[in-house]
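This protein record is not my work; I was only asked to verify it. The record follows directly below this note.
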Amino acid sequence: MMRLALIIGTSAILWWNRPRTPSNETSPFEPSSSSPETPPQPQPTSSNSKPHPASPEPPPYYSKPSPSSPKPPPHSSSPSSPKPPPAYSSKPSPSPSSPKHPPAYFSIPSPSPSSPKCPPVFKSVLRPASSSSNNDDINQQQRDRKKTAYVCVEEDSLPVFTIPADIKTLIKNKTLPKVLNCPLSPTTYKDYFAALLYSEDFYLEKWSDFLLEAVTLKLNEAEIYKNQKKEDKAFVAFELDSVPQNRPFLLSRDLVFARPVGRSTAEPFQGIINRIVRSKTVLVEFEDAFYTHHHSNQTYDVSFSFNRVCLKRAHQAVKAASEALFQNFLFPDCASEVSIPTAPPALLSTTRHKLDRDQCSAVGHILRIQGSPPYVVTGPDSVPEGKSFAYFREPSRTGVVVSEAVYQLCQKSPEYCILICAPTNSCCDVLMRSLVKVIPESTMFRANAAFREKEEVPEDILRSSLYKESCFSCPPIEKLRKYRVIFSTFMSSFRLHDKGIAVGHFSHIFLVDASSAIEPETLVALTNFADKATSVIVTGNHRNSPRWVRADIARKKGLKISYFERLCKLRPYRSLNPMFITQLDLNQNSGSDYQTAF
């Protein structure tokens, strides 16, 4: 039997063991007689796809496989072990005469989400150990090749958030949980969003058994531009069924596993989805070993793994929402207008940008606010879409407001600590670049996801990041507290909380382009860092909405309504009171047409 052991310290040696079964969870949800507004998606019926009965839950710590990473060892199971039931009971069971599917093959094997043995509640974030490690134990294991060596990057402090049995039964039976038929309010908020997130979880479980058989993978040559450098790269392309109901809804950064047909004992090649073209063609980047062994006549059995890290952090944010957060930021209808100054303070005589009247008004009101309620700025995305790399982009009119406001706040008081969150890395990078010339670089920190590709980070931004042991990290809490401005995506801001940054540490939190994120995503920063005294600024574009919602129930019942959009419908924002909201013209020129003042 295989076993699990960790070497305490910065390194770990991993080998395998069966996970333990966590205690059963309960849920306050009750069934509703209503059904979802749209029927559930039919199960795969195409001739080249069928359920994969042994697919495990995807490991939560994967972001992107490293091309140099060693392939995981195959997972073997006892012949007498019972097969887990399929994750979605309405799928047809494979006939006894059907050829057996290959065994589970993820780096840390775990059973199917619906099998009796569930994954452990907590997991570590691991990466393959370098052959040049300073740890003698690792080097010895690598030389002996007795075990696969991994480094423990960080502990995953979040529970798995397994779908409660009663909620899963309701969703499986096409019955809405009762809470989803109630208006969203402070009393229903947690249960409401938990149900929406569980519907997303169920979607991932339902399609975790999906298998494309005998697929032809074609090489697709491309030129990739990173850090102003051109790189030739070969992607792998294949087609999905043109009928959406016959295959899973895939997103960039989902994982792909390809096993050569006829080689049931071979380890699969692991890749990551880079792009979905016209909702049908999938472009995948595989590890180097794939290109070495691939030939044009080879066909593959292809399966997928969905990354649950973001869902887990969203679950945590919803669960941790406090009563004070409801009153001050989530439902600020009761905000008193009597104590709010009628005019914003004057800007500094030296400004970072040349601002028009609306931009001056927005920056002035941001400087004025002290604590709740949030201040809203509507306008174009802070970083215009189009060119894909941050070097070639300038902030839009909204981005200029954010940049100018942060600059002015830093000049106004040395006590201010500011968190800037956005849905994308490129937005964070562009905003940081717009400030690095006027705010000392040593006082700013760029918090990246652990496994963001180093090559994707612009060189001037990389200097303000912490990269060690082949992944991005955060410095010790004592150093983190000294930074005046920190940039992070919504989801990666959880790493700051995990390091020990407390509620109330930041005087100002900017939720930039919040219209492109689901509400629980923006809640990661609000729940973990905002108190009544925190000034929160929310920017967004009414033309945008969250893009990564997969489940029909979640789409129809409000998960595609962003926090920004919901906030704009509340009093006093819907009255367009300039004390609470500034509207920037979407049709005016972007920030790149505005020259800096010095």
